[in-house]
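[Q] Does anyone have a clean structure-token version of this?
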Amino acid sequence: MSQLEAVLAHLDANADAAEERLFTFLRMESISTDPAYKAECRKAADWAAADLAAIGFDASVRDTTGHPMVVAHSGGDGPKFLFYGHYDVQPVDPLDLWTAPPFEPVIADGPQGPEIRARGAADDKGQLMTFVEACRAWKAVTGSLPVNVTIFLEGEEESGSPSLIPFLKENAEELKSELALVCDTGMWDAETPAISTMLRGGVAEEVVIHAADRDLHSGMYGGPAMNPIRVLTKALGALHDDTGRVTLAGFYDGVHEIGDNMKADWEALGFSHTDFLGEVGLAEPAGEQGYSALEQIWSRPTCEFTGITGGYTGEGFKTVLPAEARAKISCRLVGDQDPDAIRASLRAHVESFLPADCTAEWISHGGSKAISMPTDGPRFLRARQALSDEWPKDAVFAGCGGGIPVVGHFQSILGMQSMLIGFGLNDDRIHSPNEKYSRASFHKGARSWARVLATLAEA
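[A] Here you go.
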């Protein structure tokens, strides 16, 4: 029996103990956004550090201005890898929609088989513990890990990570590694593992159009007085043409077409836009014509409206011209698009529609560049094969419609790329009542990481 086979056998033999450790972790109410749970966040950090110390890591809890970080080093020879996860979780509201108390984990039957239900089961305690359990098994069987590993656990990912950037800058030399390993993503489906290799960036802007100095009676002022809703909707309506393309000047600068090989891989996944839209009560694709729905989600930029308000929106009717109207606009970016340039173009576009009596107030909600990983690198190819060896179907290189800010920070502050391997499923209900994590995701996820650690040492 090879070392890897012995490690996998150890994981199988100790699966029940691994579940109990996860359940202990899940019982901690580590809601980072609510100050009432500060002690619970500290408790979760202390527990994670103690668990890592128990398997031989040099682990410590590091204080920040917010919730603490956990840093643990395995030591050893060979290339160094940084594993990232977060121990904090989302609030549980609305509580009455949970079928069991959110911090009392249970095993329940689900459409994909047995599932672990609790807040944090998939995001991210169950995910990060797959990596910890793989390390535990390697330590138990061989006394060491195949590569040098630093584990870095954050406690504020669900509340905007206010302490993350200062912490990375202050501890850059300690955390710098060959590659970051991030387990906060998902599978393509329950039988097909994935390595996420493309993350879209973003620009989030809020605009307020101001007109009269107060709300006006529509019978007295309707007609001669400019209505800010009219101004706003005209500007927003002109942001897309009839083919779904965004009309902003320079918007597509830095957008690249995907290669033929990747396009063929994505087409082979059998993604059905009819099924995808049908699950949410829709039928007709509304995005950029000439691109599949999967390409639109993973590799094309978008400009969407995520909120619009103005005037009286309560029950009944009120005959009023509002003094202001506002909208929230979210752009998802790909390739080498420049967030600052797109923000400037968006503002110029809206302001070009302003009549003399109106002004625009802008509120920025941040921005980030898209990130792409080198799928042709030997480590990524070996990791893909390692995942394929564990699961029924071969692993795929997948895109991601959203973004993971920490990956960008690792690149800009620590100068390293990330490999994103996760075992969540689309129906895990993260951030929602009855969050769950497939039991198979947890146990085969740990086996997958054991294989990946072995192949990283070979690479």
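[Q] Thanks! Anything notable?
[A] The first helix runs from residue 3 to 13.
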